[in-house]
Amino acid sequence: MSAESFSALLLAHLLGDFIFQPARMAHAKGQRGMRARLPALIAHTGVHLLVLGIILPAPDALAALGLILLSHFVIDLAKPALRGPALQVFMADQMAHLAVIVAVVLALPDLWSQTLWTQLQSPLISYLPTIFALIAGAILTIRTGGFAIGALMRPLADRAPEGGLPKGGQLIGVLERALIFVLILTAQPQGIGFLIAAKSILRFEAKGGPDHNAANEYVIIGTLASFGWAIACAYLTLGLLAHLAPIGIPALGIPVPNP
Question: What sections of the protein cross the membrane (predicted)?
Fold first, then answer.
């Protein structure tokens, strides 16, 4: 399988689903009734078309790119029919999109070589898929992780600690996943232990009681899930980078290439 093609398609998907999809569009896609959903679904597919056209400008592979767009529309159309816990639905939706990407890359392993990018006379183009993989890994770790952890914690919302800054917990989660991603990619995973210790010291108070214990357990579950997601995604990113042109990631033991 072409790591270059996979990196580009993965980044296009993550940008379309988690960066350039506003909350109101995502909400409209989940409404009941086709009349309410169809405009949002078409707009969302249009966003993916634009992103795909920029990331993978491949005039000779329009059929494959069209298949990706059509499958994305169909998967999003069927998503409201899924039943089960929020995290299970979220993961099933994303795995379906990922399966289509893998199928396209397996069928067209030379997809990246057909793009207009490869026709540019610049040695830096060979590093473009690596940059795509880094950005995709960061989005998957930080942004997608926020949705996944939010879906996991939704049934436990009544146990959430009261007070605090508005969306303070979400911001802390974003920052901690970003730090973990950087620590692992710079070969400093031991720093994660200090991050856990610092958060534990700052968060937990001496007082007890059932309500306080429930709030602490809520925070522990969310923290461990967030850390686990970030660690897994960071190492998956390193695995993908190992199959791409090196740009000096210390964790891979590869020096920065000469310009």
Answer: 6-26, 94-112, 124-153, 174-198, 218-242
Claim to verify: residue 140 and residue 243 sit in the same structural domain: yes
Single pTM value for the model: 0.89
The 3-state secondary structure of 49-69 reads HHHHHHHCCCHHHHHHHHHHH
Break the chain down into helix, strand, coil percent, rounded to 5: 80, 0, 20
So what's the pLDDT on residue 202? 62
Q: Is there a single domain that holds both residue 28 and residue 58?
A: yes
Give the amino acid at 233.
Answer: C
State pLDDT tens for residues 59-113: 989 999 999 999 999 999 999 889 899 999 999 999 999 999 999 999 998 999 9
Q: Give the residue among 217, 77, 200 at the shortest CA–CA distance from 153.
A: 217
Alpha-carbon dihedral sign for residues 234, 235, 237, 241: positive
The reply to whether 196 and 108 lie within a common domain is no
